UniProtKB/TrEMBL annotation:
Pfam families: Peptidase_M20
One annotated GO molecular function: hydrolase activity
Taxonomy, superkingdom: Bacteria
Database matches in InterPro entries: Peptidase_M20, Peptidase_M20A, Uncharacterised_RocB
Protein name: Arginine utilization protein RocB
Lineage per the UniProt record: Bacteria, Bacillati, Bacillota, Clostridia, Peptostreptococcales
């Protein structure tokens, strides 16, 4: 089999990389289409794809108000064995660059300007070394895009190529991963149309290092779920606080019991997911008045390696119920103390607070109000769609609005805790969950590590999970019976503004590996990528992986 070629492509990678970086492609904006159009046109000029226009294209995202697409290209050789190259072409915005924002996409100019800032010793050392390229998207992930595209072009020149290479360049990875969620459907279509056997998917997100001579390979990706807690209280004037219930007390107690709680950290071998942290927590008051807030809410992230939405919902219910009991006792105790001071006679405070999942709340509203509820619920969803498109409301805030609309149709007016999930959801995925993997896939880490040690005296350590969250989450689905019945029913936006092609993910079940360049300070103004990885080492490692996986 002949799949080899001389890898003197550093200059070509560099030219493409600089061009891609220069094209601003802020995630969640129409700017993503600019880099998408460039990549599409760049592929069209490759002789193979110019002669075979049916083998590349744009795959539009369904119902995407920005009109974005997945750019794809299939190099069809002999046989079914197929390696998928995956990267995203969006980047986070450059607002953090402040006065240097105009230089964020011009690495040469930015390098001169960064010296004017009070940068750290580590950043200054890398800046002075000339070994790093600074700029927005340099590491995350225009470097990976440039490497993969250039390799695709080189492989397209080979005649009688054994195997196939499918490239996917997706939008929106930094926001809701709309690109990859739609890309899953494309993968299924191409698989059936061209009778492809997907051997592996190679992502090229940058990796970070603890030691300069030890790189990282990731054979999976951490999961992420965002629980949203809504607490309905009971409104009252502040002169008569015990006639109501302040939901902030309970929300704060739930935050206290979950923030940085290591009980939420999964452990697989020596890999541990970070504990959760709250992103938002406050009352639901729109304006000032002298009354207790009617409701409060917040949301936080949980990263997973093995626990499912079923597990997390159960754990959160238990925590919320325990918090409810303690808060009820706290309020009752203070009421008794207040009665003693005022010498008033009165019955004991009767405070009952229920804890429900959104699925349970929705079912109750449907049972109480039927078709009237469904019509109003649908109208609310349609308005939210317009508001999101016009940047009038965020995804989590829209979830609060839907919960409040649902509560309007529930007869029970007592204080309540509602547990829901807000998009996005990323299932955890790892090759350790697969059975019957080929030796080429199982030994890929050792193959790469041996090559790297021999070539550059540099090791590569294998991790089962990429902790930075990535699109690799959507190429397979494990424990589907503990995912599918718990995500959709408890996610108010499900099926309207957000969904995941779970069945197609189950069908694909593709093992994955992340082979990317060394990067630092992702999403910061000091974001940078190691030049030698971009131009030489990472391309060689990906080429080595492709050839080992396609050789029979």
């Amino acid at each position: 089999m002949n799949v080899g070629f001389s890898l003197n492509i550093s200059k070509e990678i560099e030219v493409l990389f600089n061009k891609l970086v220069s094209i601003r492609s802020d995630t969640g904006t129409v700017l993503e289409k600019d880099v998408e159009e460039y990549i599409y046109n760049w592929i069209s000029k490759i002789e193979y794809f110019n002669n075979n226009p049916q083998m590349y294209g744009k795959y539009p995202l369904k119902n995407d108000y920005l009109g974005r697409s997945v750019v794809w290209a299939l190099l069809k050789g002999n046989g079914k064995r197929t390696v998928i190259l995956l990267h995203h072409h969006d980047v986070v915005d450059a607002l953090d660059y402040g006065s240097l924002m105009e230089y964020a996409y011009s690495p040469d100019l930015l390098k001169e300007k960064l010296h004017l800032l009070g940068i750290s010793k580590d950043v200054k050392s890398d800046l002075d070394s000339g070994e790093w390229i600074f700029g927005r998207g340099t590491a995350d992930m225009k470097a990976g895009a440039a490497i993969q595209l250039t390799l695709l072009k080189q492989y397209s020149k080979i005649k009688d190529f054994n195997g196939n290479i499918l490239l996917l360049s997706v939008p929106d990875e930094e926001a809701l991963s709309s690109g990859m969620r739609e890309g899953v459907n494309l993968l299924v279509e191409l698989k059936h149309q061209y009778e492809l056997d997907y051997t592996i998917i190679i992502n090229s997100e940058p990796h970070e290092r603890e030691k300069s001579n030890i790189g990282a390979l990731y054979e999976g990706s951490v999961g992420k779920i965002m629980p949203l807690i809504y607490v309905r209280g009971k409104k009252a004037h502040i002169k008569d606080v015990f006639s109501g219930f302040n939901p902030m007390i309970l929300l704060n107690e739930i935050v206290k019991r979950t923030e940085l709680n290591p009980d939420f950290s999964d452990v697989i071998g020596d890999e541990v997911s970070p504990p959760p942290s709250w992103l938002y927590s406050r009352d639901r008051k729109k304006f000032y008045d002298v009354s207790i807030p009617e409701a409060a809410g917040g949301y936080f992230n949980i990263l997973t390696l093995k626990r499912t939405p079923k597990d997390i919902l159960k754990q959160l219910k238990e925590i919320c119920e325990e918090a409810t009991k303690d808060v009820t006792n706290f309020v009752s105790s203070n009421y008794e103390g207040f009665k003693k001071k005022t010498k008033i006679q009165g019955n004991k405070l009767k405070l009952q607070i229920k804890v429900k999942s959104f699925n349970e709340l929705y079912g109750e509203a449907l049972s109480n109000s039927g078709e009237k509820f469904v019509k109003d619920y649908t109208r609310t969803i349609e308005k939210i769609k317009d508001d999101i498109q016009n940047n009038k409301i965020s995804i989590p805030e829209s979830t609060f609005v839907i919960i409040e609309k649902t509560l309007e149709y529930v007869k029970d007016l007592s204080p309540m805790v509602i547990i829901a999930f807000s998009p996005p959801y990323y299932p955890h995925v790892s090759n350790i969950d697969f059975k019957g993997l080929s030796k080429a896939v199982l030994n890929l880490n050792d193959t790469i590590n041996d090559f790297s040690k021999h070539s550059w005296n540099e090791e590569y350590k294998k991790y089962n999970y990429f902790m930075g969250i990535s699109d690799m989450s959507y190429v397979a689905l494990t424990s589907s019976e503990e995912v599918i019945p718990y995500i959709g029913p408890n996610m108010p936006l499900w099926g309207n503004l957000y969904n995941i092609p779970f069945e197609h993910m189950k069908e694909l079940s593709i093992p994955a590996i992340n082979i990317g360049p060394w990067g630092k300070d992702l999403h910061k103004l000091s974001e940078r990528v190691l030049k030698r990885d971009l131009l030489e080492r990472t391309p060689k490692l990906i080429k080595l992986a492709i050839e080992n996986l396609l050789k029979g």
